[in-house]
Amino acid sequence: MGIKNFGFETIETYLQKGIYFIPDYQREYSWLKDEQIDDFWTDILSAIEENRDTHFFGQVVIHDDKTDNKKYVIDGQQRTTTSVIFLAVLRDLFEEVYNESNYSSARNKFEDIRLKFIGRWSEDEDELRLTLGRVDKEYFRENIQIHKPKSIIDPDEPSHKRIKEAYKELESRLRKLIENVSDSKEKYNTLVQFYNKFINGFQLMYVETDEINEAFIIFETLNARGKDLETSDLLKNHLFRSSGSLIEKVKDEWMKTVENIESIDITKFLRHYWNSQYRFTREKDLYKKIRTEVNTPHKSEEFVKNFRIMSDVYKNLVNPSEELYFLDSQIQKTLQNMKTLSASSFYPIILAMVNRNFSEIDIKITLNALESFIVRNVVVAGRVANKYEILFAKIAHKITEKELTEIVQIYDQLKPEMLNDEEFEMVFNTFVVKSTKVAKFLLREINDFIENEVQVVADNRRIHLEHIMPKKIGEWNVDNETHQKYLNRLGNLTLLGQEFNTSIQNKPFDLKKQIYTRSNIKITQPLCDYRTWDESAIENRQKNLSKIALKRWDFPEII
């Protein structure tokens, strides 16, 4: 039949119009207290202060599923859920007013909210007017619809935390308005003002259809140009709309992917995955590109199936210390190095290699080359990483298209853009590093390259970054200009155990050397050979470090 109901509805009419369900494939509750909840409060407060009759609260798209005999919220689940949270806050505050004063009108409002907008629930009867998806359903029922959130218990699920924070934030805002009011009737009148404005003044554009495909088309039409909607939401809707008779398979694969990647940003995963399979696309154009390419039931099924398979690989790329896809320990170590360097633009290359069944040996060699590339070009030379995002995506696409089938071919694509040894050594000699995390990584890798027996522990909490010429000049005979110029040169930095570092702090170099002699860290021990520590010593040491860095992050010929 298609659209069966369309128009503007107040919150009161909307919430009493039907019993609503959030599909399991929809996002969990995502509104944040400092963003959307703050905006929500600002909207209702300004509507009251400006005495506005109406406020447009957005749209909802409902699928009246005759097979299940349920009304599913296809669009508008966040504002629907927040509406119930806000009404639950009002319910509980009306009950407080009644309990402290026996004011019967407050009791009536408590009952109205509970029966008209929230509903009742027992083990035998479920009369709730809104049921959330699988992840949030039980928590929302117990901590919003039946009771208020338990103060002493912090939920584990991120969406549950957001639900609790939304309730607490709105409760706090309302409570501040009535906490210094002694008269119960005045408290009641303040709460009623917010209650009436919300249920009668907040309006939604309501669209209801009994055709699921029609619901997805409406959703897409309403949101495709919306600035706040995630690319992943638009894509999910498009895939469902395009899946035809395969919709249940597509939904199932999508849900498995969302569950698998857990807290990882699915839009970023989408972009990296797309750029591993197709021509480079920026995030703002991603939805249009996918909509054009993936437009049949078969293509939709194929896309979500491979997307789900690649989610295991992506988890390992993003969280190498917590996830395991690759069995080679050296791959895991290199991925951890890349994470330390905040590098992610290379992800499409690895996704494409896995998808084309490259061996772990080939992936390990390629990752080593990519690490050298990023250290040389981005970390040390300071070239913008975005420039290489396009290069890496082009390489990934060529791998997918089977234009690059050997790692030597991948190497040949990288080499022309790579800083050669002479360029790298030149920029390294004057390299300034202000990131403690990056400085520790570089020094640790240089140390471990020349010392096989005593490796520096990777735990940054146990190893400190030592500024040989200290951050505070103190007793050091150095002018401000020289201090600023050389303080964060890599040659002025070294590694020490925590107990050593805290004991020497800003002491003169002669006293520091006494501590350096006790260190087991290879790159720290030679500092004792210096008689003084000045700009000449820093430059000398940095040149020595650059010789080792050249070998550690080399780019050897691959045969």
Question: Which secondary structure elements does this structure contain, and how are they paired or packed?
Answer:
Elements: E1 3-10, H1 11-17, E2 20-21, H2 36-49, E3 55-65, E4 70-75, H3 77-101, H4 104-118, E5 130-131, H5 137-146, H6 158-178, H7 184-201, E6 202-209, H8 212-223, H9 231-242, H10 247-261, H11 266-277, H12 283-293, H13 297-318, H14 329-340, H15 347-355, H16 360-380, H17 385-400, H18 407-414, H19 421-428, H20 436-450, E7 463-467, H21 480-486, E8 493-497, H22 498-504, H23 509-516, H24 535-552
Parallel strand pairs: 2-4, 2-5, 3-6
Antiparallel strand pairs: 1-6, 3-4, 7-8
What does this structure look like?
It contains 24 helices and eight strands. The protein has 559 residues and is α/β, with parallel strands linked by helices. It has a six-stranded mixed sheet, sandwiched between helices. Strands 7-8 form a two-stranded antiparallel ribbon. Helix 9 (231-242) runs parallel beside helix 12 and helix 20 (436-450) packs across helix 24 (535-552). The longest helix has 25 residues, at 77-101. The model has no long low-confidence stretch (mean pLDDT 87).
Summary tags:
559 residues, alpha/beta, six-stranded mixed beta sheet, two-stranded antiparallel sheet, 24 helices, 8 strands, 8% strand, globular
Summarize the biggest pleated sheet.
Answer: 6 strands, mixed
Number of helical segments with 4 or more residues = 24
- Beta strands, count: 8
Radius of gyration: 30 Å
Q: Helix/strand/pairing class, anyone?
A: alpha/beta
Q: In which range does the helix fraction lie?
A: 55-70%
**Widest sheet: strand order?**
1-6-3-4-2-5
- Based on CA inertia axes, which overall geometry fits? globular
- What separation lies between the terminal Cα atoms? 65 Å
Ranges where pLDDT stays below 50 over 5 or more residues in a row are none
Instruction: Round the mean pLDDT to the nearest integer and report it.
Output: 87
Note the beta-strand portion: 5-15%
